[in-house]
Structure formats: structure tokens, C-alpha cells
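User: Please run a holo structure prediction.
Assistant: Happy to. Please share the sequence and the ligand.
User: Here you go; the ligand is pyridoxal-5'-phosphate.
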Amino acid sequence: MEYSRTAMSLTPSATLQLSAKAKELQSAGRDIISLSAGQPDFPTPIPIAEAGIDAIREGKTVYTASTGIPELKEAVAAQYSIRRNMHWLPSNVLVGCGAKHNLASLIRVAIDPGDKVLLPRPFWVSYPEMVKASGGIPIFPEECINGSEIRKAAGKGAVGVLLNYPSNPTGFVPTVSFMSEIADAIAETDMWVISDDIYEDLAYLDSGVPHILDFHPELKERTAVVSGVSKTYAMTGWRIGYSLACSEWTRLAGILQAHSTSNPCSISQWAALAAVEGKASREREEMHRSFHMRRDLICELLDRVDGMEFKKPDGAFYVFPRLLTDPQKLDTNRFCSDLLEEEGVAVIPGSAFGAEGYIRISFAASEDDIRRGIHRLKEFLHRRLNT
Ligand SMILES: Cc1ncc(COP(=O)(O)O)c(C=O)c1O
């Protein structure tokens, strides 16, 4: 059988592949320290889990409206209307099977084959593949994303742009001047925007995370805000994400969803409602505090590692150091697989995020694993630098 050219052009997710390899070695009895995870290492808070159990007991186990239960759409619309200081209705909300699903559906209905979409580098692994899967062409800025790169992309015919702050993989949180420059440039173009805000609640600055809609609220008509409960509430396996966009974009993505997955899991939606309604705010704050402490710890440990440089992340749970070993010899895929084989430490190669020469280290791990993992990385790098 011949498979479609589109399918054949897709690359498997490097993050999922590496995590799978680490698990395989672990099952074979190796002492593996995983600093590769893209998910909180906490259990889902009990009040949320109980809402899911109640949903099962109450028989809320049948198909729901394909775009999500009205209660959850209302709660999301109300919460984000306050959060972004603008008005959204339930008809602007689509509940999907994880933020990833919302992203894929919104991209799918926004582009036609051959359309170009600007993806700031380093990008989250799935963006280019989602664009390609929809027949689009990902384009990347020549330099760091800024106003002139956006104007340049618009000049080359880009129809849309994906923003992700706090960023996976860098943990970067934009400053007010950075975000206002980006927002000004986008406002001058006709590009649509998808703002992937999945890490919005995991930021470590008191000043919060500047958002494109703070600067140009009129962009609401062509901006989709995507978030969900996965990272904030340790609910990655429940698979609930949501988006807020103009009603037509939401309607079209909802039709696509209805024909592909019907609705997101009914039980998970009731559990997500408990999360959005604030039933686990205390647990959420505790997890946030832990991530903040671990961020400080990992940065302190990495400061003492030779052979790399990094910027302290202000959000998410990743550090993205640049390796300073001989660039001629540097292939980060190889580096990461050697690190896993030799030292039993799993991290993700920067090439997966369009940034060769970097590695992504996750601090969604216990303090002990962070300490032992960075110690082993230090030894490994020491050997590399001296051979
Ligand atoms: C930047 C980014 N967006 C979206 C997602 C997907 O989130 P979800 O698990 O809700 O699909 C992830 C998960 O790793 C992510 O890192």
C-alpha cells in the first residue's frame, strides 16, 4: 500500500520517543533518571479525581455535546473573560481532548493546502507537524522572533503565527516591551494568531505573563487562546484542553471535532469542571510552589556545570541549555542517546524543537532525581570536554 505524502512527511514526536526508550531501559532494570517529562510528577488533586469518580457513579458516561458540556464551556468563558479582561461566551469555547487536540483542530480549519504559518524557533515539537498534517508549510524566522521577523513573514505570505509563552522548551516569559512589539507587528498584518497558553499558570515572576491581547484587544477576532487543565492541575492523562476564539473559528473546529472524536471524555470533562471552578486551588498553589523551588534548585546546580550556558527560565518546567562542546562534534540526538545509555539520564535533544546544539531538561521531577541527574550530566559533560 502507498501512504499519503502528507503522512509520510510527518516526524514522530522526539519527546514521546525518548520517554519510551527511558521506560524500556527502566523495565530492563537500569537506574534511569528521567529529566525528559513534559508533565507534572504529582497525582491529580483528590477533589478533581473525586469529581471524575462522581461522574462515573452518576452515569455521566454517555456522549456529550461534541464541543463540550455546557457547564464547562460556561466556566471557561467566565474565567477567561476575567483573566483577559474581555468578553467571551460559551459559543467561543471548544473543549477538546487536550490542548494538543484544540491546536490541531484550530490549525486544520484555519489553513488551506500550501498556506504558510510562522513558527517562532525554538518551537514546541508538534507545531510543524500539525501544520504539515493540514497541508500547510511551516516557516521559521531567521532570527529570534521580533517585530521585523513578523513583518517579513507576512511579506512572504504567512497567514498565521503560533505563540507559546511561557515557552516549551525554553521556559521563556516575554517582557512587556517584547510582547508589545510582537503585538504591534501582528496588528499591522492580517495574520491570525494561536496563543498556546498551556503553561500560563506556571510562571515564576510576580509580574505575570504579558499576553498579545493585553496590547491589541481588537486582535481577539483573529486570535485563538488555547489552554487546558493538563499542566496546571496534573491532569495530562485526562485529556482535556480548551480554546477561546471567535464563534466561527470555534464552530468550524467544533464540526471537525464532531466528525473525528465526537466529544472529549465525559468523565474527564466533569473532573476538569471541578478544576476550573477552583476546587483544587490549594493543591494547585502547592504544586506551583514546588516547581518554583525546583526551578531555583536546578539553576543553582546547572550554574556549577561546565560545558553549557543557559538562561534562567521564568515559566513552565524546562531549562534549555546550549552545549558548549565542540560544535563540529556536536549532534544533540547522539548526545542525548549517549547520555541515556552511559549515565541513565533522559533529556530531550534541542533538534526536536528546531534548535540544534541545545538540550531540554525538565524539572518536573523529584528533588532527588534533579540532584542525581544533574550530577551525572556534569560527569558526562566533563568526560566529553576532556576527550
Ligand atoms: C507547548 C505545549 N502545548 C500544548 C501541549 C499539549 O497539552 P495537552 O496535554 O493538554 O494536550 C503541550 C504538552 O506538552 C505543550 O508543551
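Residues 5-43+282-385 form a domain with the Aspartate Aminotransferase, domain 1 fold (CATH 3.90.1150.10).
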